[in-house]
Amino acid sequence: MPKNLFLVKIGGSIITHTEKQNSPNVQAIDRIIGELKKLPKDSTLVVGHGSGSFAHVPAHKYKTHLGIINKDSRLGASITQDAAANLNRIVVQRMLKQGINAVSFPPSGSAIAKKGRIVSWNLGPLRLALENGFVPVVYGDVVTDKEQGVGIASTEEVFTFISSKLHPRKIVLATDVDGLLDKDPKIYSDAVLIKKVDARSIRRLLAYAKGSKKVDVTGGMHTKLLLLFNLVKKSRATGYIINGSKKGVLQNLLLGKAVVGTKVLP
Ligand SMILES: Nc1ncnc2c1ncn2[C@@H]1O[C@H](COP(=O)(O)OP(=O)(O)OP(=O)(O)O)[C@@H](O)[C@H]1O
Ligand SMILES: [Mg+2]
Q1: Structural domain span for residue 40
Q2: Which end of the chain lies in a sparser environment, N or C, as judged by fewer CB atoms within 10 Å?
Q3: Which residues contact 169 (CB under 8 A, 6 or more apart)?
Q4: How many whole angstroms from 143 Cα to the centroid of ligand 1?
Q5: Spatial contact of 43 and 133, defined as CB atoms under 8 Å apart
Q6: Which residues approach ligand 1 with their CB closer than 6 A?
Q7: Distance 180 CA to ligand 1 centre (A)
Q8: Counted domains in the chain
């Protein structure tokens, strides 16, 4: 089993300019990669990243998350897969520039889903890469789907599958807000941070979590929280939702320091 494994998602809302299609925020990508490098030496890392203004836009246009539903669906799925891969190349290239031996493992190449949930994926190569000192990079992607032909697996879904096989210790979802708040802070300036979610509070708190204002086919904070809670419950890892747009938050969390954010416990 990979030792002291961290799964860290860098939200598409951090690494892209969400208001402009296919626009990477290279400055933010470079800063957050610099923070990833602070991971303690005794730990291993799988990085995931979201799609922001890349794949969410064609996925929404062609309704790729709903599968093959009309004559444009196949071309739409291919365009969406290309958009996700393009952002992935940028992220990986920026990691290489900072000396991280990153290797992509695109779910679209080998995962099979059923209604958007991954049901099989040979993680042998990813695991071996991890054991040999590489940093595997995964991302929210188009996947083949047993029921609907194609589908979208969000990075959170990809992490759910990986967690069931690799048993991480910490799962960190970095996004563009401080964590889960009692309402969407992008709409309400008086929103209050919820510092902890657990089995007793999840049902009540899930009602606070809504979709995102930007083009988004995977459900924003609601699915993020739901998948993270289920994942933590099954894997016994600790989950965190933090603000990766603010300098130093991810780095401090990796270093084991107390940070502002939402902790998700089983
Ligand atoms: N109660 C809530 N607390 C916090 N954020 C919320 C809440 N309800 C809705 N949101 C929205 O959820 C968004 C974060 O989810 P979103 O999926 O957009 O980000 P991401 O996962 O970083 O991006 P991507 O899906 O491209 O990777 C916030 O920007 C916020 O607008
Ligand atoms: Mg999202």
Answers
A1: 5-264
A2: N
A3: 4, 5, 6, 43, 237, 238
A4: 22
A5: no
A6: 11-13, 50-52, 56, 175-177, 180-181, 183-186, 208-210, 212-214, 216, 218, 220-221, 224
A7: 9
A8: 1
pTM: 0.97
**Residue 220 CA, ligand 2 centroid: distance in Å:** 4
Sheet of strand 149-153, all strands in order from the earlier edge strand to the far edge:
117-121, 111-114, 141-145, 149-153
Do 86 and 119 meet the contact criterion of CB atoms below 8 Å apart?
Answer: no
Closest C-alpha to ligand 1, atom 15: 220
Burial degree of 20 (CB within 10 A; 0-12, 13-18, 19+) = exposed
Mutate to test the pocket of ligand 1, among 80, 177, 189, 208 (most ligand atoms within 8 A of CB): 177
Residue whose structure tokens are 């190569």 = 125
What tokens does 143 get? Answer: 């996947």
CATH code at position 173: 3.40.1160.10
Cα distances (angstroms) measured from residue 188 to each of 17, 191, 192, 204: 21, 6, 9, 19
Q: Tell me the pLDDT of the chain (266 aa) as tens digits.
A: 778 999 999 999 999 998 899 999 999 999 999 999 999 999 999 999 999 999 999 999 999 999 999 999 999 999 999 999 999 999 999 999 999 999 999 999 999 999 999 999 999 999 999 999 999 999 999 999 999 999 999 999 999 999 999 999 999 999 999 999 999 999 999 999 999 999 999 999 999 999 988 878 888 999 999 999 999 999 989 999 999 999 999 999 999 999 999 999 99
